[in-house]
Specification:
mainly alpha; Rossmann fold; elongated
């Protein structure tokens, strides 16, 4: 399974015509969550982007940001 397949799509939410991508299903899936964190970590370890600090905005950003900060050893 891919990361994309673990993200739930809610059509017409919060209003008609919008396809809301809910990552809650990804976060609660241990394999999917690891795939996301490993994917981000590899990008930063390989040096494509220099990272000094991780900031997770909004509720789900705190979860991903915290895990990414831990794996990279960044504050």
């Amino acid at each position: 399974m891919t990361i994309k397949s673990r993200i739930r799509t809610i059509p017409n939410y919060p209003k008609k015509g919008i396809m809301f991508r809910d990552i809650t299903t990804l976060i609660k899936d241990p394999v999917g969550f690891r795939l996301v964190i490993d994917n981000f970590t590899q990008r930063y370890i390989q040096g494509y982007i220099q990272v000094d600090l991780i900031v997770g905005i909004e509720a789900r950003g705190f979860i991903i940001g915290g895990a990414l900060s831990y794996t990279l050893g960044k504050g």
